[in-house]
Amino acid sequence: MIALIAAVPLETEFLRRELSPWEVVHCGGYDLFLCSLRGRQVGLLHCGVGKVNAAAATATLISTRKPEMVLSFGCGGAYPSAPLGIGDLALATSEIYGDEGVLSPEGFLDMEQIGFPLVKKCGVRYFNQFPVNRQFIERATPIIEATAAASKRRATAGHFVTVSTCCGTTDAGKRMESRTGGICENMEGAAVAHICQLHSTPFLEIRGISNIVEDRDLSRWDLRSAALIAQQGVLALIENWEERNVPA
Q1: Cα 148 to the chain's mean position, in Å?
Q2: Portion of the chain with pLDDT greater than 90, in percent
Q3: Do residues 189 and 55 touch, judged by C-beta distance below 8 A?
Q4: Cα distances (angstroms) measured from residue 87 to each of 19, 118, 147, 205
Q5: Model-level pTM?
Q6: CATH of the domain spanning 2-240
Q7: Using an 8 Å Cβ cutoff, are 166 and 187 in contact?
């Protein structure tokens, strides 16, 4: 099964329509939407907003359904210097916890600087950053680029940043961008990647850009366009994804 995880129903409306009919089953307290696409089972779950919701839902889904891969998707805010505009499509090369650490008189210290790995797996310590498998990125990139081009949008791959408190000012966005090297931010992705790493489950993430990270002005946002292009990317990925033995 390919498992799809999004925070809220707004981010899945197109997929639920395009891939119907769905069977809805109970999955550890969640509603799991199940369908079949070209002989492969697809599961869709709404995790809710934020890291804790994302981690709990991902752990439940992996432990009960053991998917071959998890694809996280939804909307995201692009950092000021990123080559992304509203309605563009972003592909994660890694997920970074942007605010796990300590604020000190010398500035922000991440988990590596304070000496506490978030995951220890097969002799590797993971602190704030969880990489996406390079082979997955190479396979996904042309699919995502074609999806964006079909809507006359851009596609960019880069580091995603997951935060508990979104950057609602231009200055905060610039600081987070500079510190992490990220191209966009969200509130769930690193938690999904974290749980996938623990369970050795392959992970992929795409985001449609709903806004630029600047002084918060909702009149400039376009959540629906961002959600739509992300879902179009998801559909293209699962329609064109070939089974290969790729490690997590």
Answers
A1: 17
A2: 95
A3: no
A4: 22, 33, 12, 16
A5: 0.95
A6: 3.40.50.1580
A7: yes
Report the Cα–Cα distance between both ends of the chain, in Å, rounded.
Answer: 15
Q: How far apart are CA 222 and CA 187, in angstroms?
A: 17
Q: Is the dihedral of CA 111, 112, 115, 120 positive or negative?
A: positive
How do the residues of the chain divide into helix, strand and coil, expressed in percent and rounded to 5? 35, 35, 30
Model confidence pLDDT, tens digit, residues 124-154: 999 999 999 999 999 999 999 999 999 999 9
d(CA 82, CA 196): 27
* Amino acid type, 57: A
The set of residues, in sequence order, having a beta carbon less than 8 Å from that of 71 and lying 6+ positions away, is: 2, 3, 4, 5, 203, 204, 205, 206, 234, 237, 238
**What CA–CA distance (Å, rounded) separates 107 from 127?**
18
The region that residue 122 occupies, defined by phi over 0 for left and psi between -120 and 50 for alpha, beta otherwise, is left
CA quadruple 75, 231, 49, 41: dihedral, nearest 10? -150
Q: State residue 243's pLDDT score.
A: 62
d(CA 62, CA 219): 38
Q: Which residues, in sequence order, are CB contacts of 112 under 8 Å at separation 6+? A: 127, 128
**Per-residue pLDDT tens over the stretch 34-43:** 999 988 999 9
Is residue 246's pLDDT more than 50?
no
Residue carrying structure tokens 């804790």: 52
**Number of residues assigned to the chain:** 248
